[in-house]
Amino acid sequence: MTCKWRKLGVVFCPTGKSDWMRSHAAVPIAEHVRDDIFKIYFSTRDDSNRSYTAYVVIDINQPNNVLEISERPVLEPGSPGEFDDSGAMATWLTYYRSERFLYYIGWNLGVTVLFRNSIGLAVSGCQDDAFSRLYNGPIVDRTMNEPHFCASCCVLNISDKWHMWYLSCTGWHVSDNKPEHRYHIKYATSDDCVNDTATTEIYTLHIVGSVRCV
């Protein structure tokens, strides 16, 4: 049986009236609030193109009717010189004990290339809106085996073991006088959802019936 998706239209687009929410509503993450109500976290940008994490609240049956828009960012760029000083873009939300763990992409601007990413972690109580960084540095960054950058991730707790699939840049090449990046999906495990043990192998998409899954 083939599953077909039906588009419902645009849910939310920034008006540009806020200094920190000028444009973009990207990388959405849905969190169930109650019944048919969901909080959708997303990445937005300011005048300097820096990424912030915000949210809207919607009724999933009437997604075009936004019930609430965050008045302030739930996660902002870091201090100058830190791994996320040019952007803090949410990429995965999960729960650990009594807290919510938000994995996010930290952005640094580059000189010879456009940018460098790494993965940070922020936490929040179950009823809180804002997230606080667990560390001022990244939990996954470039290494001797991954010299370029690491970005978007998926994190699952399976049988008391944390599993992370993440983007790993394999290098930059110049096309039309512009540097462009390429990447693979890599895999890591952890006992505490923070300290990962990465593999050096490219993760292979396995075929389950007719469905490809990570």
- Unreliable residue runs: 205-214
Considering DSSP H and I runs of 4 or more, what fraction of the residues is helical? under 10%
Structural class: mainly beta
Q: In this structure, how is the largest beta sheet organized?
A: 4 strands, antiparallel
- CATH class category of the largest domain: Mainly Beta
Roughly how many Å apart are the termini?
Answer: 20 Å
- Which CATH-level-2 architecture of the largest domain? 5 Propeller
Average predicted confidence as pLDDT: 89
CATH topology of the largest domain, anyone? Tachylectin-2, Chain A
Q: Going by CATH, what is the homologous superfamily of the largest domain?
A: Glycosyl hydrolase domain, family 43
- Domains (count): 2
Inertia-based shape: globular
N to C succession of SSEs: EEEEEEEEEEEEEE
Task: Give the strand tally.
Answer: 14
Q: Specify Rg, calculated over alpha carbons.
A: 18 Å
